[in-house]
Specification:
mainly alpha; 12 helices
């Protein structure tokens, strides 16, 4: 009876499906480990010799993986590098969702994306020093600039839709903000992070608040001048919600 119970057609697919899931999870872990090894190899090589001089063979030697394995995951070293920026994409997407939720509820948004970016950079300083520090190369910084610009231009453009045309085109304002932010991050990393993420966020706010107010033709009096909420309130519609 027990033999019949464990060999029914109903049980077989379940067992096979379960084994299949276990195999898939094991393969996922193997893929993640391989990608991590290649990623860590690239980051360490950038710090040591600069991005431009690195070859795929250098990465293979450092990660101890085969050439076919590398090309099964990435087309070239550029794609391997740019996969690192998915960390940034996730961060900004989470922050943008929080902004959207705040507009629906009418609550003050707990969205401090510049502060969170400095915190994230500090927590992963080896990674960001490799891709944004002075040893990285102009191409990487240009990509970072373009990447952050695209992440910010969407929300800023959406923000201005129901307003009169701002004194400064939103594209120029966004370009300025991203350039300032990248310059501060690069300086911070190259000088071994002499200030806390909170202090760097404060410095950024001090430097850019007058520009944002003038470019967006908007001031906020809801929160104390110079406070974190006063700064980030500039990016949220005050009359968006009932």
């Amino acid at each position: 009876m027990l033999r019949k119970l464990f060999t029914t057609e109903q049980n077989r697919p379940f067992c096979h499906a379960k084994r299949g899931c276990m195999k898939e999870k094991k393969e996922d872990r193997r893929i993640s480990r391989t990608r991590r090894l290649m990623h860590e190899a690239l980051m360490s090589l950038i710090v040591e010799k600069g991005y431009e001089s690195i070859t795929v063979q250098d990465i293979l030697n450092r990660a101890d993986v085969g050439r076919s394995t590398f090309y099964a995951h990435y087309r070239d070293k550029h794609e391997l590098l740019f996969s690192s920026f998915e960390l940034l994409r996730t961060l900004f997407e989470q922050q943008q969702q929080t902004i959207h939720t705040s507009r629906l509820t009418g609550r003050d948004p707990e969205v401090y994306f510049i502060l969170e970016l400095f915190r994230h950079t500090g927590q992963h300083h080896k990674l960001y020093k490799a891709i944004a520090g002075k040893q990285s190369g102009e191409m990487i910084l240009k990509y970072l600039h373009r990447y952050l610009y695209k992440m910010l231009i969407g929300p800023n453009t959406e923000l201005m839709k129901k307003r009169k045309a701002p004194p400064v085109p939103i594209e120029i304002t966004t370009h300025f903000l991203v350039s300032t932010l990248l310059s501060l991050i690069t300086w911070w990393l190259d000088n071994n992070m002499p200030y806390s993420p909170e202090k760097m966020d404060e410095i950024f706010r001090i430097m850019t608040t007058p520009t944002i107010e003038a470019a967006f033709d908007r001031k906020t009096t809801t929160h104390p001048a110079g406070s974190i909420k006063a700064f980030y309130n500039l990016f949220v519609e005050s009359d968006c919600c009932p």
